[in-house]
Amino acid sequence: MTGSEAGKETYSSAPSGSRTPLTLAVTAPIDVAPVVEEEEDDLSVTVSIGEKCRHSGCKTTFESDEVNRQGDGEGTICWYHPKPPIFHEGSKGYLCCKRRVLEFDEFMKIEGCTKGRHVFVAKAKPSSQEQFMECRIDHYQTPTEVHVSVFAKQADREQSTVKIEQNQIHLDVSLPASKRFRKSIELFGPVDPTASSVKYYGTKIELILKKQDTRSWTLLEKTNRDMGNINFTFGVGGRTGTIGAKQVILDNVNQAQHNVQHV
């Protein structure tokens, strides 16, 4: 209530003091330059004479490895633009340098701003996501050992792990083209991990498992199936079993026994 007039009370809704209007600060968006991963020349790949350098702004054509790829001679030097072109309101140029032109022909003539080496064949970049695959596993036994072959061609030893335990083996194998094979196998019988061994070859990984007893292994992988009198042949030179195969591979003696049992 602010007063009275002729016996009537009057009210006012006006503010008692002045207020400062609230101002919101708006931050302008910041242009972030795109991250550009530069290519690297794959020196293991043969280049045809006359092949152009892949770098933007470089006009060099390939003559020979000695001239353009090896050493630090003048022919190996590449002046190029590491960042992509930019076209804005008629002007043309590259994000990595300041020069801008109007005509497209002049744009094509803008000289490179960065010094480096030519790239005639870009080296393949490793994929960040691996693809899992299967590898064939073969095996045979002797009275004291079980020999296991994992057919993992060109396995990367530094990036692979093969672990032998008393009752299991664990395979984690890195392969070319971002592929990987991973499998754990519960063994048919116990082995001595300290007396067992692993060797890497170009086409496979070889495991020699030292048996803890003299039992004959019916299979490499432990199973609940009744295999009867089927056994591996001691000291065979070929394949006697394959993990993932649709049937058991038998020698002549066991095959004959198997046929008699099913007559």
From TrEMBL:
UniProt domain CS: residue ranges: 132-221
Pfam short name (any one): CHORD
Keywords assigned by UniProt, alphabetized: Metal-binding, Repeat, Zinc
Organism of provenance: Grifola frondosa
Residues in coiled coil: none
Superkingdom of origin: Eukaryota
Cited InterPro entries: CHORD_dom, CHRD1, CS_dom, HSP20-like_chaperone
Start and end residues of each CHORD domain: 53-118
Transmembrane domains' residue ranges: none
CDD domains assigned to the protein according to its UniProt record, in alphabetical order: p23_CS_SGT1_like (cd06466)
Entry GO MF terms: metal ion binding
PANTHER family: CHPADIPLOID STATE MAINTENANCE PROTEIN CHPA (PTHR46983:SF3), CYSTEINE AND HISTIDINE-RICH DOMAIN-CONTAINING PROTEIN 1 (PTHR46983)
Annotated gene: chordc1
Protein name as it appears in the record: Cysteine and histidine-rich domain-containing protein 1
